[in-house]
Amino acid sequence: MEKENHTMVSEFILLGLTEFCELQIFFFxxxxxxxxxxxxxxxxxxxxxxxxxxxxxxxxxxxxxxxxIDMSLASLATPKMICNLISEYKSISYEGCMAQMFFLHLLxxxxxxxxxxxxxxxxxxxxxxxxxxxxxxxHVCIGLALLSWIxxxxxxxxxxxxxxALPFCGPNVVASLFCDxxxxxxxxxxNTYILELLVIAFSGVLSLFCFIFLFISYSIILMTVxxxxxxxxxxxxxxxxxxxxxxxxxxxxxxxxYIWPFRGVAIDKVLSVFYTxxxxxxxxxxxTFRNKDVKKAIRKIKNKxxxxxxxx
Length: 312
Hints:
Layout lengths: L10 E4 L6 H31 L6 H28 L5 E3 H34 L4 H4 L2 H26 L9 E2 L6 H5 L7 H34 L3 H30 L7 H22 L3 H20 L1
Parallel strand pairs: 1-3
Antiparallel strand pairs: 1-2
């Protein structure tokens, strides 16, 4: 993949979802509401877990980290996507495009590992409850969080180190709402067959293996829960159903987009929107806001704040 003597492109044009003005205005308003809800929801989770001592447990520590990643993932591409919906010239600089892809795979890889860490936490809590406090110590939780970021960094560098070396000298129209690796690679003025295989290996196969691991883990946990009393099982089943829902909705689009990433299917646009806009909203809605402990903590903080204002 040696660079040739070409005039390099300085920007990329993003096609977006639709060319109809009415739909663009609708999507602008709709995505703006979703993005605002995503940022506020995840910020609330982070502050509630931080401020409430009763939520200083491994599970909520990991969920707070997940909220931070989701909020960052949503902020990576969504604001630019929203602005392009009401802009006539839908462009992004070459440097901005490379940075967008770098952080997209950094955060995506980190979230994959963090979801595995959450599954391990639930496995130990339900299947090995007597050893839970000893195994899931504070140092272990911090180690799992750091490992997730290291995994994300290795994941993105393994692809971006080759992508930035590609010569982009001809077409610069990206058939997506943001700079997505499979779509951008197709625009390079060289043979990218080997890099295409790397994307499939590092993104598609990685997503598939992580999903299989999580599916097996939660299947074992479910079997353990079903063998217990109904009183203890109902709460565990409710929690597990939320975790499994998030796993399916997160990994489904990833596997579909990256396991066969170079076929040019139009549905990839819809899945990309789902992955970057709707998935980050799942954590506040499914994981935590339906959780009794979190709702109790939010009410406690709210009542404390109202009480302090009344005193003043």
